[in-house]
Design a protein that fits this description.
- The protein is of the alpha+beta class.
- The strands form four sheets. A five-stranded antiparallel beta sheet has the order 5-4-3-2-9, with helices on one face. Strands 11, 12, 13, 14 and 15 form a five-stranded mixed beta sheet that branches. The chain has a three-stranded antiparallel beta sheet with strand order 6-8-7.
- α13 packs antiparallel against α14.
- The N terminus is likely disordered.
């Protein structure tokens, strides 16, 4: 059972925004005034400040602050809200504590430190620090290093085995039957390592027995970089207890051989023993600190009639969980393969990639797939190209290389390889592979906006798979066809396919497949103007993608989540999602995708008034922009136009908007909505720059005339040209269109435009009606809040104006509220 949190006070003070945090005396000073800080608030604040270099997960924060795990999420949110209020922050601005939905919290306000760095432990007795500087052992201590220990078999039995695996480990199925085993000499060598680790555990336990108070372990003072492999939880006969430490050491050596910084096993065993078992969340937090761990590798080894199953889990610094699982008759083979799969997902080739190529095609493909899931494309390619020459011509290897090209943005190169594979006679006799090739071609067609071609290829794949007993592959093809039908607005057909796809994925035990179906269902709901319904699907998929470590699907899912949150005017949530995406941009191999993530981050920052940060992000996209064709680079042009416009740099904004618009063709297409928004943006920039009214642009007649942005653009052009009756009629038409769709972002866009125009015409009652339409969103959306200010000011309702002004100011960021609206209205 976890005890109350204990904090080591080796630091003096932290200074931020007029506050002085003194951990040793449990004080928070605001200037010269001592702030009242209940224990939970102080511990939460101090823990986040101490760990400001990373995101603090929800479970970790609960364990550190409450000292237990049975705390409701709502309690955590309430505590975070109170801490924010304490330091002058709020959930909208998030200047001090930033929320990363589904991940945790991070301190983001700049800090100045005075004195040594503060070190936190997450559990302890509250009396004696669990960790401090390492004290030398007693003179003459004869506890030898692990390398010098001799095997002592009787001591191995002292290592206890867990009766069941950890219940929270999510693993990806990776069962690979194999008849490969170690030679007798190899088995003897491995068993020697197992026994050696068991002896080390015994001797080190004797060495540390009774010395937790007098000789605590050292706290790492360097940056957290190590990958720490913990003893495995073992389930099976009593005579396999040695697997707990033996498999741990084998896995650690495998990771170490790939170049990862893995501490010696004897260090880990000693730390675990000093910590006490079982290891709960608080203990794990302390182990991270004491061993300088960037991540901990936890695992289970389970013996059954079918052999040994070893599954591993680690969570990296970016909050992503990487899992692997292998089942083999022999535990050493299962542990080795699980380690290799984990390495692949982390982007680290194993020793087999450096000249020890395996001839097992299935294992090569599994390791490449693990790397592909984690978006480690170079690693996956090296695994495939490192296979023996005899395997290089195998169609499975060639298909996997085509997958890598497609993921890296080389759509045409991938399609050439895939079409050549379709002409290979050996492919036609392999329905599963044949269908996978067609399905990837369908994906490429979709990327090229060839929705009909995508649907055609996916349908052919479905036909091949119907009676093959391959539910995972069939589910994937059904989901791809559904996406193509969403593209063509055939929602009923798409939903039917998605229902079938989910059934197939569940039948296959394919957690990733189920998540992909949820993601696609979310896209279908979003496409039919139902962002509220789409969020639940995206959140479900997010959890699975994050836990599996599937980077590319996670990026796609977060991208859609961002747009759904923006459509709902949940600006704070959207900003947090854009931050998660931006943190992943370097892991996106496709330059177009990296650029897209930067545009999303810039959009989120600009929409919340963080202009300087948005400018810094766009500056990082210069190189990516040069590598892209104009039709992709236009997103950067549009983002810069938006930022320049909001900053009042109208001529620069016009140039960027014109460059973005130049990439569009004149005819209608699937990008009508994007083009309509650009046209509205360009016209507003032009009017703000004081340009004279011009003839109605011909592009307005192209595409869907009912699009809200186009209707608003037309209404504002009529208003600028002095055609007020036409302006009024078109504004009302835009409002009716947005009300029919029911998307908050579109409703607000029309109501704000019409409301501001009505204010200019002194039609105050009608303007108040438009302000009322968007009042629900004024707590998160600045433009909606500003309309409240303007209307109450015009109506001379001082109390309501003052409240609305305060609301708008909290959302403004770098935006400047007009001076006239900041002067109290005359009665």
């Amino acid at each position: 059972m976890a005890t109350a949190p204990h904090r080591e006070t080796t630091a003096a003070e932290y200074h931020f925004a007029g506050f002085r945090l003194v951990p040793r005396t449990h004080e928070l000073w605001r200037g010269d005034e001592l702030a009242s800080t209940p224990r939970l608030m102080f511990d939460c604040l101090a823990y986040l400040v101490e760990h400001r270099d990373r995101v603090v997960g929800l479970d970790e924060l609960v364990s550190a602050v409450w000292g237990r795990v049975d705390v409701a999420d709502a309690q955590v949110r309430q505590l975070i809200a109170r801490v924010r209020s304490l330091v002058g922050d709020n959930a909208t601005d998030q200047r001090a504590i930033r929320t990363l939905p589904g991940v945790g919290y991070r301190w983001v306000m700049p800090i100045e430190t005075c004195g040594p760095a503060l070190s936190f432990g997450s559990v302890g007795t509250g009396q004696t620090p669990a960790f401090s500087a390492l004290e030398p052992g007693p003179a003459g201590s004869n506890a030898p290093p692990l390398a010098e220990l001799q095997p002592r078999g009787t001591e191995v039995s002292l290592v206890q085995a867990a009766s069941s695996p950890s219940g929270d480990t999510a693993a990806t199925e990776a069962e690979v039957p194999s008849n490969k085993k170690l030679s007798p000499g190899g088995i003897a060598a491995v068993l020697a390592v197992f026994v050696l680790c068991g002896a080390a555990a015994f001797v080190l336990s004797e060495h540390f027995a009774g010395r937790k108070e007098t000789a605590p372990l050292a706290v790492s003072t360097g940056p957290a970089q190590a990958i720490v492999v913990l003893p495995l939880q073992v389930g099976g006969p009593e005579d396999v207890a040695w697997v707990r430490l033996g498999a741990m050491d084998l896995i650690a050596n495998r990771l170490r051989g790939a170049g990862l910084p893995v501490p010696p096993s004897e260090t880990v065993v000693a730390a675990v023993h000093a910590m006490g078992e079982p290891l709960d969340a608080g203990h794990l937090g302390k182990l991270r600190q004491s061993l300088g761990a960037a991540s901990l590798v936890q695992g289970n080894a389970i013996k059954s009639d079918s052999g040994w199953k070893v599954d591993l889990l680690t969570t990296t610094a970016d909050g992503l969980r990487h899992t692997s699982e292998a089942t083999r008759p022999d535990v050493t083979e299962a542990a080795r393969q699980a380690a290799d799969l984990l390495l692949a997902s982390l982007g680290h080739p194993t020793s087999a990639d450096k000249g020890e190529s395996t001839s097992d095609l299935q294992e090569v493909l599994l390791r490449a797939q693990a790397a592909l899931l984690a978006n480690q494309l170079d690693t996956a390619r090296s695994i495939l190209l490192g296979a023996p020459a005899a395997l290089q011509s195998d169609p499975h290897i060639r298909f996997k290389l085509a997958q890598l090209d497609q993921r890296a943005g080389k759509q045409d190169e991938s399609a050439i390889t895939l079409k050549a594979l379709l002409d290979d006679p050996s492919v036609t006799s392999r329905p599963a592979l044949h269908a996978q090739i067609l399905n990837l071609l369908a994906t490429i067609a979709f990327r090229h906006q060839d929705c009909e071609g995508s649907e055609r290829n996916a349908a052919e794949a479905i036909g091949l798979l119907r009676d093959q007993g391959l539910p995972a592959e069939l589910g994937q093809a059904l989901a791809t066809r559904a996406l193509a039908n969403v593209c063509m607005d055939r929602f009923d057909i798409a939903v039917d396919d998605l229902g079938k796809a989910r059934t197939q994925a569940e039948a296959a035990g394919d957690r990733l497949g189920v998540a992909m179906v949820d993601h696609t269902m979310g896209k279908a709901e979003f496409q039919r103007n139902r962002p509220g319904e789409s969020i639940a699907y995206f959140e479900s998929a997010d959890e699975a993608f994050s836990s599996i470590g599937a980077i590319e699907p996670l990026i796609a899912n977060l991208t859609n989540t961002y747009y759904a949150q923006s459509s709902l005017l949940r600006r704070t949530d959207a900003l947090a999602t854009s931050e998660r995406l931006w943190a992943l941009h370097e892991r996106a191999e496709d330059p177009g995708r990296r650029m897209y993530l930067g545009v999303i981050r810039s959009d989120g920052l600009t929409a919340t008034g963080h202009y300087s940060e948005a400018e810094a992000v766009l500056a990082q996209l210069k190189d990516a922009e040069k590598q892209l064709p104009p039709n992709e680079a236009r997103l950067v042009f549009a983002a810069r136009a938006d930022l320049h416009w909001h900053r009042g740099l109208f001529e620069q904004a016009l140039a960027e908007a014109d460059q973005a618009l130049a990439s569009f063709l004149d005819q209608a297409g699937p990008e009508d909505g994007e083009r309509a928004s650009l046209l509205l943006q360009r016209q507003r920039i032009s009017i703000a720059a004081g340009h004279p009214a011009r003839a109605e642009p011909p592009l307005w007649t192209a595409g869907k005339l009912s699009l809200p942005a186009l209707l608003i653009a037309r209404a504002e052009w009529f208003a600028h040209a002095g055609q007020f009756e036409e302006a009024d009629r078109t504004f009302r038409e835009a409002l009716a269109t947005t009300q029919a769709d029911g998307v908050p972002e579109q409703i607000a866009l029309a109501a704000q435009a019409y409301g501001n125009w009505l204010l200019d015409r002194n039609r105050l009652d009608e303007a108040a009606g438009q302000a009322g339409r968007v009042a629900l969103w004024a707590g998160q959306d600045y433009d909606s809040a500003l309309l409240q200010v303007a209307v109450f000011h015009a109506l001379r309702r001082a109390d309501a104006w003052a409240k609305a002004l305060k609301q708008a100011q909290s959302l403004a960021g770098e935006r400047q509220i007009p001076d006239a609206l900041q002067i109290a209205p005359a009665n």
